[in-house]
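pipeline stage [seq->struct] | target=M20 family metallo-hydrolase | organism=Paenibacillus mellifer | residues=449
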Amino acid sequence: MPGDRYAYARPAGLYTKGWTDRSRWRRAGPSWQPGAGPMSGAEEAAAYMQGLLEKLAEFSEPGEGVTRLLYSPEWMQAQQFLLEQISDSGLKGYADDVGNVYGELTGRRSSEPIVLTGSHIDTVVSGGRYDGAYGVAAALAALRHLRRTYGPPQRTITAVSFAEEEGSRFPLTFWGSGHVTGLYDISEAADCRDAGGVSLQEAMAGCELGPRQPKPSCSGLAAYVELHIEQGIVLEREGTQLGIVSAICGQRRFAAVVRGAANHAGTTPMGLRSDALAAAAEMTLRLEALATATGDPLVATVGRLEVRPNTPNVIPGEVRFTLDIRHSHEPELEAFCAQALDVFAEIAERRGAALRVEPRLAAVPALMDARLQNELAAICAGQGFTWRSMVSGAGHDAQLFAPLCPAAMLFVPSRGGISHAPEEDTPPEALTAGLNVLIALLYKLGYEE
């Protein structure tokens, strides 16, 4: 890149210092206003990205927030819109067999491994407008800017809008990136059904995106880069502008059932009860205490409880609950799970209850590439941004690519740490900061290497 490698990405007046300080949070946006003269290339890229985000938010089921479920009409409209934007931006656009959408900035050295960047466009029910969509909009804006400013790269850079990551409609996650990385093949689609009984295969049959082309080969990937909102409160609380992800936590999920004895609430003495809810409550509190004593980055959550018979004058005879445990290192994750389950068993035995625990998910931690982390750190410093290294407690498409190619993630702050909710928010200047760092990294990976 001519001159100062990163100077182009930070025109004067574009950012408001201290925008992560909660007391000064404001939607200042880029300094350019209509009638103020032509925008710089970086300002135009930021405005284009903001426009994509606003338009994508319109593709939603009625109701609060954004609801865009896999293979729904809203999802189809959003992916088709992105294909149109890709074509208008001078990129090569196509979709693969499961509906992942790609925008390719073709490189001069076509035989070399490609750089892939993006995220997903599906949402949770009544979610926000930035989770996933930000990484997609930023990827397209970055490639559009690079093409207009520097022409064809040496190495092909491809933006991707993954079909699905959340698992909101069908009982599986990472359907889009899992198709690319080999986690899934099409055979899973026949038996996987949504709450209405529609199979994934049936829903996918209605996916009429085009043109079609085979998915990229993971053996042909030079790197995968994902820009995302933090979905947590660390960056905002610290007043740090950007987060460079060092690892994505491994995750264990369990389904637990505690069985006691349902009986009359008025006639059963306290010392003669086998109260399933009391046992589950003690397990929940002990889990919290154990996790707090272990410390970061471990987190443990009881997220859902079902009490039976759930009647005011009956001692609960059965409680079903979910258990979610996460840590960035596999040995510590395994050790904590074993400790917690031993404690649960002791509580159940002492209270005269039966306990059954079934594993439901085992995702290994994913380490991000050290070299790419260093590159991101250098770019942040060059652009004058404060940053910190951090572990992602949430799962992301990047964790599927990490074992297969160098992978990197960059976080921007989430206001109040809120995500998966209509209130999900990140100020424009924070979104722009992440975009500019992404542009600089993609330039290095695609034009310089």
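stage status: PASS
auto-comment: The longest helix spans residues 330-350. Confidence is low (pLDDT under 50) at residues 1-36.
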